[in-house]
Each structure stands twice: as C-alpha cells, then as structure tokens.
Design brief:
191 residues, four-stranded mixed beta sheet, 4 strands, 12% strand, DUF4303, DUF4303 domain-containing protein
Length: 191
C-alpha cells in the first residue's frame, strides 16, 4: 500500500480550507490571527496521524484569557485590573492550538482518517520513519502556505498559518512564516 502524496495534500488542503472558512464566515465580528495544523508528531511511533485543524481569533483569545483569570482569582475578587499581561511566546496560550477556542477539528471522517493514517504508517515501515515524516511535513508546509494565502484577507489580513510542533517549533516556524511574520510574532526566533 502506498500513498498518493498529491491526493493527500489536496484532500488536507481542501478540508482545512473549507472548515476554516466556515468558522471565519460564521464569526464576522472576529479577527482571526492564526490557523494551524496540529497533532502530527515528528518523533518515531507505531502510527502516523493526520493533522487536526485549529484556529483562533483575537476576541476568542481575550474571552478565554479573561475567563481563566476569573477562575484563578481569589474568592470574592472580581477585579481583573491586577491581571498580568499574558506572555506571547510560542509556548503561550496565544500560540498553542490545543488551548484555542476552535481546536482539534478533524479534517476527515473516521474511516478516511484511518485509511490515510494506515497508508502513511505502511510507507514509514517500508521507506523508514524519517524519510516518510520529512516528506509528510513538506506536504503540510505547502498546505499551510496555501491556507495563509487564502485566509489572510480583509479583517484577517494579519493571520498566520503554520504547522504546530512543540518539539521543533523554532525550525518549523521558520519554514512556515515569512521573515516579517517571524519578526512581528516571534522576535526571539529571528537571528
């Protein structure tokens, strides 16, 4: 069993774009700042997963952070004036897709996800984990590049699209973002 890499790329791109547009169009009062493909590990394992889609808006982030601040406030303390500003490094809530309002959105139904995942896993067994995951990530980079071009328009013109991976965030962000986007959002990664 092999993988039709072109078909897989197009399927992920179409599904991610359709779902992201549905969320964006359903929330015209929101400014979306990021969309990510998440959940694909670069570390060897017995199975290669398909990514999930995540996106977030400035309004959803502010609401979720305010709710978290209220939950952590001492009993009887309704004043949020003393809440410290949230760190905005890559490892903060702002950039962590599992903490976003719209997160872990499956791109396909269970049967399609299982078929693609099994095909990828078989390729890895035949051609090696590293070669397979490298090719798979190149595909995901192209998908996020396309998502960025399609979705960063109008009120969402500053939206960035990336593949999320905590273990290799610096390298992956440098691949997914323009130098200007890196400087604006992750200046610590600019050399």
């Amino acid at each position: 069993m092999g993988v039709d890499w072109t078909a897989l790329e197009e399927a992920i791109r179409k599904s991610a774009l359709r779902q992201a547009r549905e969320v964006i169009d359903s929330h015209p009062e929101h400014v979306f700042y990021a969309v990510a493909l998440d959940g694909v590990s670069t570390e060897p394992s017995d199975h290669i997963d398909l990514p999930v889609l995540a996106l977030n808006s400035e309004q959803a982030l502010a609401r979720d952070l305010a709710l978290a601040a209220v939950d952590m406030a001492p009993v009887g303390d309704d004043d949020l004036d003393g809440v410290e500003p949230v760190e905005e490094s890559f490892y903060s809530t702002k950039w962590n897709p599992p903490e976003w309002h719209w997160c872990s959105m499956d791109l396909f139904d269970d049967s399609a996800t299982e078929l693609w995942g099994e095909a990828l896993t078989q390729v890895a067994k035949t051609h090696g984990w590293e070669a397979t995951i490298r090719r798979y990530y190149e595909l995901l980079f192209r998908v996020t590049e396309s998502l960025g071009r399609e979705l960063a328009v109008g009120r969402n013109a500053e939206l960035i699209a990336y593949v999320s991976d905590e273990d290799h965030a610096d390298k992956i962000l440098r691949r997914c973002l323009t130098p200007e986007q890196l400087q604006r959002h992750f200046p610590e990664l600019v050399r």
